[in-house]
Design goal:
Largest sheet: 8 strands, mixed
Number of helices: 12
Oligomer: single chain
Bound molecules: pyridoxal-5'-phosphate
Shape: elongated
CATH class of the largest domain: Alpha Beta
CATH topology of the largest domain: TIM Barrel
Radius of gyration: 24 Å
Length: about 375
C-alpha cells in the first residue's frame, strides 16, 4: 500500500493509471445498475492501482459506499474519505470492535459468533452501531447459513444494533448459465425478505453487468471499475492501467543459441532481442514467459507485436524484436505490455490466470503516473 515515488529516470517501467477512465467506468456501472445504488470495491489497494488516488476519484464520481477486505484498509480509506460508508468484508476479528467505532466503520458480520460479539460490544458501550450481515447462499466462504439468518431475523429486537445491509456473494457470476446463479438468487430473495427494511446486495461486477434481477438495492463492482473483464459476453469498460517497460539492452542472437534461464528459448533464425527491465518481482507472471514448446505473452514496440521469449526472470524479460526495424528501437525506449491493443485479459490468458491477479500483483518498482 506504499506510494513510493520512483523517478522515471530510475524506473524499469511506467505504470500509468487513467483516473478519468476509472471515474467513467464507475459512472457507467452506476447507470447500468440504476435504480439500484452502486458501491465501489477498493480492497487490495484498489485492485493494485493505488487506493490513495483511486478513492477520492471514485468519491468525486459519485460513489458513497465502499467495500474493503481488512480493517487496515478501511482505516486508510477513512483517512481519505471522512464521509464515506465503509464496509469491511472479511468480518469482525476478535479484539477489533473498538477500532470500528473509532473510525465509524461497518463490519460485515459473517458468522453467528461475529453477530454475538458485535451485539455484546454494542451492549457494553451502550450504543447501537450499524453493521452488515453476510449470508452464505452457496459460495461456502463467508456468511451465516440461511438457518442462522432466520435466527437473527427472529431476534432482531434483541440485537442491540441496526442492520444496514444484508448481502451474499455469487460464486459463478462470470458464467451466466451456471445453475448455481439461479439457485443463489432464489435463496437470497428469501433471505432479503426476512429483512424487508434493510438494503440488500448480491451482485459483484459480473452480476452488476447482467440481469437486473440480481441487482437488489446495491451492487458491489470491483474488477469492472478497474477495466477488467468479468464476463466474456460483455465488453470490458475503459482500460484504466497502461504498463510500459524499459528496454535496457538490445542484442543479437545466432541461430541455435538459447535465451535466458534453462535455455528454454532457442533462436530458430538470427534474431534481435530486447531485454526489458521488469520481471516477476514486478508482478509479471512467470507463466507469461515462453519456451520452445509454448508461446507466451506479447509486447508492442514501435507498433509491432513482439513475442516474449524464454523464461521471465525476477527483474528482466526478453522480447524478440527481429521484426522491428533497427532504427525504430534503442535502449531507453519503452515496450508496452498493457495498452496499445494489449488488454489485461490478453496478459491474463497468456499467464494462465485472471485479470484480478494481474492487477493486484502490479509491482511497486514502477514509476507511477496519474492522468
Ligand atoms: C471482491 C468482492 C466483490 C467485487 O468483486 P468483482 O468481481 O471484482 O466485481 C464483491 N463482493 C465481495 C463479497 C467481494 O469479496
Amino acid at each position: 500500500m506504499t506510494d513510493r515515488d520512483i523517478p522515471l529516470s530510475e524506473a524499469g517501467g511506467i505504470l500509468t493509471v487513467d483516473l478519468s477512465a476509472l471515474s467513467a467506468n464507475y459512472q457507467e456501472l452506476s447507470r447500468r445498475a440504476a435504480p439500484a445504488a452502486c458501491a465501489a470495491v477498493v480492497k487490495g489497494d484498489a485492485y493494485g492501482i493505488g487506493l490513495t488516488r483511486a478513492a477520492p476519484a471514485l468519491w468525486q464520481a459519485g460513489a458513497r459506499s465502499f467495500f474493503v477486505a481488512l480493517l487496515a484498509e478501511a482505516r486508510q480509506l477513512r483517512g481519505l474519505l471522512p464521509e464515506a460508508e465503509i464496509f469491511v468484508l472479511n468480518g469482525l476479528f476478535p479484539g477489533t470492535e473498538a477500532a470500528y467505532r473509532e473510525q465509524a466503520l461497518r463490519p460485515v458480520l459473517g458468522s453467528a459468533d461475529q453477530v454475538e460479539r458485535w451485539s455484546a460490544f454494542c451492549a457494553d458501550i451502550g450504543e447501537g452501531l450499524p453493521a452488515a450481515l453476510h449470508v452464505d447462499t452457496g459460495m461456502n466462504r463467508l456468511g451465516l447459513t440461511p438457518a442462522e439468518a432466520v435466527n437473527v431475523a427472529e431476534g432482531r429486537d434483541e440485537l442491540g444494533f441496526p442492520l444496514v445491509l444484508v448481502m451474499s456473494h455469487l460464486a459463478c457470476a462470470d458464467e451466466p448459465d451456471h445453475p448455481l446463479n439461479a439457485r443463489q438468487l432464489e435463496d437470497f430473495r428469501a433471505i432479503a425478505a426476512l429483512f424487508p427494511d434493510v438494503r440488500a446486495s448480491l451482485a459483484n461486477s459480473a452480476g452488476a453487468l447482467g440481469d437486473p434481477a440480481y441487482h437488489f438495492d446495491l451492487v458491489r463492482p470491483g474488477i469492472a471499475v478497474y477495466g477488467g473483464r468479468p464476463r466474456k459476453d460483455v465488453a470490458p469498460l475503459r482500460p484504466v492501467v497502461r504498463l510500459e517497460l524499459r528496454v535496457v539492452q538490445l542484442r543479437r542472437v545466432h541461430e541455435g543459441e538459447t535465451v535466458g534461464y534453462g535455455g528454454a528459448h532457442t533462436a530458430l533464425r538470427p534474431s534481435r532481442v530486447a531485454i526489458l527491465s521488469a520481471g516477476y518481482a514486478d508482478g509479471i507472471p512467470r507463466l507469461a514467459g515462453a519456451s520452445d514448446l509454448r508461446p507466451g505473452a506479447e509486447a508492442v514496440i514501435a507498433g509491432h507485436r513482439c513475442p516474449l521469449i524464454g523464461r521471465i526472470s525476477m527483474d528482466l524479460l526478453a522480447v524478440d524484436v527481429t521484426e522491428v526495424a533497427e532504427d525504430n528501437i534503442q535502449p531507453g525506449d519503452f515496450a508496452t505490455l498493457l495498452g496499445d491493443g494489449l488488454s489485461l485479459d490478453d496478459l491474463a490468458r497468456h499467464s494462465h490466470t485472471i485479470d484480478y491477479e494481474i492487477l493486484t500483483s502490479l509491482g511497486r518498482r514502477y514509476h507511477r503516473r496519474w492522468v
